[in-house]
Amino acid sequence: MSLALMKTNNFPAHTGYSGIHLFNELETTLPLSKDDVEILASCIAEEEDCSFYLLEVVFIDRQTIIAVNKEHLEHNYVTDIISFRYDQDSTDQAIEGTLYCCGPRILEQAEELDQSPEREFKRIVTHGLLHLAGYNDTSESQKKVMRAREDYYLEKLNK
């Protein structure tokens, strides 16, 4: 699937295309499923008092994440995730967005952090969902809050 087919091109709100959609553009099997993403999104929606109307989670390779990063953020490097939110709903009750996740980078981070690939993939998706729900991580204090929320949701789901 080419980037032109993804919804980063000013996706129109509420066109009947709703729910959670998982796209694997990698040549490997993912260590998480659409059900895992649905559980994460549901948990975050409940706790953060928001609702995900449309969520695309797209797993891509290094070259593609660099291209997305360059085109949309003017950054020329590999990153683990880039989140795009499309809706203009200030109540956060109909969030629409796409999470571009770099599978190879996430696997490297799992190894670096001595985590299972499944846990690191879930952490990165959680991170992206939190961005869509309004969290930022540009300052050190915001990063601490974001990490604490990631840990909270991962622990909650492991009980």
What would your notes on this structure say?
With 159 residues, the chain is α/β, with parallel strands linked by helices. It has a single domain (15-158), classed as 3-Layer(aba) Sandwich (Collagenase (Catalytic Domain)), CATH 3.40.390.30. Helices cover 45% and strands 18% of the residues. The chain has five helices and four strands. Strands 1-2-4-3 form a four-stranded mixed beta sheet. The termini are far apart. Residues 1-15 have low confidence and may be disordered.
SSE layout and pairings?
Layout: E1 19-24, H1 34-48, E2 52-60, H2 62-73, E3 81-85, E4 95-102, H3 103-112, H4 117-132, H5 140-158
Parallel strand pairs: 1-2, 2-4
Antiparallel strand pairs: 3-4
Short description:
The chain is α/β, with parallel strands linked by helices.
Number of separate domains: 1
Report how far the terminal alpha carbons are from each other. 36 Å
- Corresponding CATH architecture: 3-Layer(aba) Sandwich
Percentage of residues assigned to helices: 40-55%
**Helix count, per DSSP?**
5
- The run of helices and strands is EHEHEEHHH
